[in-house]
Amino acid sequence: MRKKKTGNPAEQFNGENPIQSKERVATAESWKTLPMPEQHAIIPMHETITSEAMAIVKRGHLPYAMEDHWFMYCDENTIRYYRSWSGFCIYVARYVELDGKCLITQLQVNRNPDQYTNQDNERDKAHFMALLTDEYGGNSTRYWDQVY
Questions:
Q1: For 84-130, how does the pLDDT look when each residue is reduced to its tens digit (9 = 90+)?
Q2: I want to staple 130 with a disulfide (CB 3.0 to 4.6 A). Which of 13, 51, 56, 143 is the partner?
């Protein structure tokens, strides 16, 4: 099984959960961020997660160690991932909640080569889903296997 690539790797190495507790809720004001650049791709998606998982995701992700490279927060219909060191917006996913599930319908991906160098839509979908799945403690192995 592939190890998680999010959170604090030192804790992962020690056999601990690398994702911090969700005691504090991340908001747009929690971290210094930059907007999604004009150079971006819009990728259709059709991925679902449970409402229980989405409740955890909605609490966001506040990096608490230098090795934790992501900041994430949600608002009413988006999930936003930023690089924690630079504040660059990498992913903005649109979602709708229906029938006890959350359906991710679209992924906007940074394509500014000065901020993010990947150009592969399928890899970006897998990377986003790996990060998201790690957030709620799901099995992200199949997504990480597509990324690397």
A1: 999 999 999 999 999 989 999 999 999 999 999 999 999 999 999 99
A2: 143
Cβ burial of 111 (10 Å; 0-12, 13-18, 19+) is middle
- Helices within the chain (DSSP H only): 9-13, 51-57, 121-135, 141-147
The edge-to-edge listing of strands for the beta sheet with 78-83 is 40-50, 101-110, 89-98, 78-83, 70-74
Q: How far is CA 78 from the centre of its chain?
A: 11
Q: What is the DSSP letter of 124?
A: H
Is residue 3 included in any domain, yes or no?
A: no
Residue 98 lies in a domain: yes
Q: Per-residue confidence at 64, pLDDT binned at 50, 70, 90?
A: confident
* 131 neighbors 6 (Cβ within 8 angstroms): yes
Distance from C-alpha of 132 to C-alpha of 143, rounded to nearest angstrom: 10
In a domain, 77, yes or no: yes
Task: Output the pTM of the full model.
Answer: 0.85
**Degrees to nearest 5, angle at CA 71 with 123 and 44:** 35
Q: Which two tokens stand for residue 134?
A: 């790690």
